[in-house]
Task: inverse folding
């Protein structure tokens, strides 16, 4: 290393250049129907509203509890696990980023599906983690055999996104059985809308990490809460990395509102049940319109129309005030990912699509 | 790379092992006097209290604006810079972590003082950035000549912590003049309590990044807001990395309360003036008790007593319900870092110290 100073050197050469993840649009217009980022159409639980009202502004002068005690305890009780098995973060993106940096430290590539949450390859690039995408089969299913080969870790969502397809517990267990020497992360962002959680497998697999979010089923995307459940050893390693990054990630509001949300199971069940009913109706209605819809276990429908171009449908809807998500990636560019909204919002969607067919 | 599967391999070998930063205690007891983590003794501004009251819980179901538009605009207006010159994060720790990963990508070591914010070496370890500590001089001052040699970036707080010593603008400029080929980060967490900000130098140095926090002078440690101001090119690079990490770091509460806080300059001035007055009185009172106090420009006093052991004083105070900070590091183990509290809290401190002298 040449320690002579070369003042002609450009500071720009020190910059890290990355290709960032592109989140769905957050349009500022008021009168649109927003079915593009898998938010919940229902407001947060009345318990959350109450907690917000009672929040003590004077407490805000102090740092929050860095161990996130109240929220961690509430989550541990809710899921029937120890407080040393829960890690909380600023949305599940923060939790997953911490998992990547904590668990994927092998020379071998991390495996994940080719069509999946598009943040995985972004974290791999950011943290310089080798990775390998495993192609979904022709019906967009994950092939468990693809994950038998030696690797540096495995991550996939269940239900998968943007497909919405869920795999049974036996499938998860098969992957775990073939990956006892690495960490396996099951991203359960959408599990409350369908399918069986991998949480019961924690008792037998210390190398399993399950992640969750408040952004979908808890109607709290704006509060930024995600969490992971795993063996105390995995959680401790994540905590150490988190404390090396930022000691206080969860603000006081997130800690209080997050704990409050768990108290109201009836509201949670009612709203998720409604979303599931609206989703099932949506699959029916869209199919009647000629769409091919994947079998969704999530709060969105992934659908393609054999007669109409995906990008054109997306643009038409957008022009008419309905935002859905369209990905320009290979294999899925003909699909729309439509978040399940209120019934009346969905009616507007069906009507607008009918008009689209006449004009495209 | 051997891609044969060795199921006897242990998943533990995949874990990242780090030595985390240890934050100051956040004790749960109610009746203590908390002078250990440089929080503000005054509540957040009435504008913040008002904003909290008016917060719309229904909005929480939606993702926050990923560009943090309202808060960024408010900060840009406040500081008279462009919105493309402001980066916001979850406390200045988040901002600094992003700066480390974005800007310190050289084979050469990053330079920072030996006695300084103890998170710097932790980030360097986490992100595997080579670094070199430059010893403060015998009066705990940063020596600018130490930063002339070729390096991979420079970071220091001004005022420095835990010393509280501030350097003039000419000093910052000298360092910038000798470091045109790397990024120089000036961490101004405490600048509102004394000294001149480096912000005016931004007009001439595109490689300068200035960071700030709401945790000290804005009485909002519990809301987790920090920010950086720099050239549009630096800010864009940080945004790209941030979007590769977590698109939505700032929750709705932080965005709204953060913008509201800036509206009330009178309250801000009043509370910081009071803290400065209490600090100056503290230096006088502690000096009268035989302490040697460094010349603080921050909201804390860094002091050592020639007759009494630093750790013993710390333990005595703690036992009597007064939490201050004691660092076990080389050169500073005889010092206490005492956050400036309310006048009545400081009186309790002086009385308790007087009693300590009789019993130690």
Result:
């Amino acid at each position: 290393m040449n320690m002579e100073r070369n003042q002609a050197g450009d500071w720009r050469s020190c910059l890290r250049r990355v290709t960032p993840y592109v989140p769905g649009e957050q349009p500022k217009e008021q009168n649109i129907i927003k079915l593009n980022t898998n938010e919940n159409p229902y407001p947060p639980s009345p318990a959350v509203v109450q907690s917000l009202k009672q929040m003590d502004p004077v407490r805000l002068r102090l740092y929050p509890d860095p161990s996130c005690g109240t929220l961690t305890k509430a989550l541990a009780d809710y899921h029937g696990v120890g407080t040393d098995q829960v890690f909380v973060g600023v949305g599940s993106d923060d939790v997953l980023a911490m998992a990547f940096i904590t668990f994927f430290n092998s020379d071998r590539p991390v495996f994940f599906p080719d069509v999946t949450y598009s943040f995985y390859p972004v974290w791999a690039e950011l943290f310089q983690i080798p990775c390998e995408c495993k192609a979904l089969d022709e019906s967009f299913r994950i092939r468990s055999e693809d994950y038998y080969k030696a690797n540096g870790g495995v991550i996939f969502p269940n239900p998968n996104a943007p497909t919405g397809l869920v795999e049974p517990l036996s499938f998860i267990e098969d992957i775990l059985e073939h990956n006892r020497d690495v960490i396996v992360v099951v991203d359960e962002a959408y599990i409350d809308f369908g399918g069986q959680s991998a949480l019961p497998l924690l008792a037998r697999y210390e190398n399993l990490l399950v992640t969750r979010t408040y952004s979908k089923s808890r109607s709290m995307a704006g509060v930024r809460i995600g969490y992971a459940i795993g063996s105390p050893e995995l959680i401790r390693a994540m905590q150490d990395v988190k404390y090396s990054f930022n000691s206080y990630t969860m603000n006081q509001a997130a800690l209080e509102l997050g704990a409050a949300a768990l108290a109201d199971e009836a509201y949670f069940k009612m709203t998720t049940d409604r979303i599931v009913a609206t989703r099932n109706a949506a699959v029916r209605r869209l199919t009647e319109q000629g769409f091919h819809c994947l079998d969704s276990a999530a709060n969105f429908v992934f659908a393609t129309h054999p007669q109409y171009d995906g990008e054109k449908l997306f643009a038409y809807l957008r022009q008419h005030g309905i935002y859905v998500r369209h990905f320009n990636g290979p294999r899925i560019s003909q699909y729309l990912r439509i978040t399940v909204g209120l019934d009346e919002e969905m009616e507007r969607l069906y009507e607008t699509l009918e008009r689209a067919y006449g004009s495209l």
User: Anything to note?
Assistant: Chain B touches chain A through 102 residues (CB under 8 Å). The first helix of chain B runs from residue 46 to 53.
